[in-house]
Structures are given as structure tokens and as C-alpha cells.
Amino acid sequence: MGPLELLIVAFWVMLPAYVPNNAAVLAGGGAPIDGGRTWKDRRILGDGKTWRGTLVGTLVGIGIAYLLNVLRPTAVEALGVSVPTFPLVAMITLPLGAMLGDMIASFVKRRLGRNRGAPLPGVDQLDFAVSALVLTAIVAFEWLVAVFTLPLLIVVFVLTPILHVVTNVLAYLFGFKHEPW
Ligand code: CTP
Ligand code: MG
Asked: Where are the domains of the chain?
């Protein structure tokens, strides 16, 4: 695969893991998952992790994966790039894993004494991608290793932070987010 092809496949295969966090930003609000509970005087997760945001984010991600599967034949023909099909389990674990990774990062941030919204550079940009791939590896290992060749993995880990920074700055500028990260 050439560089452009790798970029297209990376974006395609990661889209079900990219969209949930953004959907959660738009849908977030309501009851926090930790119910306001604390551990050692700090919130377990904080008000930034809500049931509604997590549920909507995961469902939107599943919907995106489904849509990409439907569009695949058209995309392959139009782009001339062999983008992968998502198996049912990956349609669920990519978005769910992304939401879980974001939540684990919030847990870690609270333990480090950083309040809701505080940045944790590096972690904020990659937590969801790592977690989405790890969770998917558990349920669809053969699919994952067949799709994610080393070059693709490298492109994913370069592309993901760039997209994360760009979308979050845009979300901030348009008033959807309190902080630009
Ligand atoms: N959000 C949500 N549920 C999630 C993830 C995000 O409701 N599982 C919503 C919240 O409204 C949150 C916003 O999306 O404030 C931005 O997400 P994020 O940057 O992950 O949360 P922060 O508020 O920055 O909190 P944290 O410091 O814990 O990351
Ligand atoms: Mg944040």
C-alpha cells in the first residue's frame, strides 16, 4: 500500500473509534457515571464522564461502523482502495473501547490530582485509540492483525493525535467544548 492508501485505510478503520468522543461532547450532560462519588477525596471519574455521553457516543460509533460496511463496495470502487469490512464484534468494541479508554484516562487524571478538563498531553490524544484496539484484539484478533499491518499501525498513531488536536480546537472554537483539548 502507498502512503495515500494507508492514510485512507487508517481513517476508515479508525472512524468508529474517532467519532464516539466527539458525539459524547455533543450529547454529554446529565448524571455522571461515578454518581458524584469520590476516592481519596477526589472524584472517581468526574462530571465529564456521563451515562448519556457514553451511551450516545458508543451507539453513534456502532452506527458509523455499520454505515461504513454498507458504503464499502461503493468506496472501494470510487477510491480504488481496499478498505476493510468491520465484523460485528469490532463494530461494537471499536466505539466502546474508545469510550472506555477515555474513561480510564479520566480515572488516571483524577488520581494524579488533575481536575475535570485538565489536559494530560499524549494520553488525551491516544487513550481512546489504544483502548479501542486492545478491546478489539480481545474479540477479533485475527481480523485485527490481518488489517493492521505495521505500516498501517504507524500511520494510525501519527494520524490520531493530529486529528484529535484539530477536532478539539474546532469544537472549542465553535463553542462545543470548554477547553481546546
Ligand atoms: N463526555 C461525556 N461522557 C463521556 C465523555 C465525554 O458526557 N464518556 C462529554 C462531557 O460533557 C465532557 C465532554 O464530553 O465534558 C468533553 O469530554 P472530555 O474532554 O473527555 O472530558 P473533560 O470534561 O475534559 O473531562 P476529563 O478531564 O475527565 O477528560
Ligand atoms: Mg478533556
From this structure: 3-173
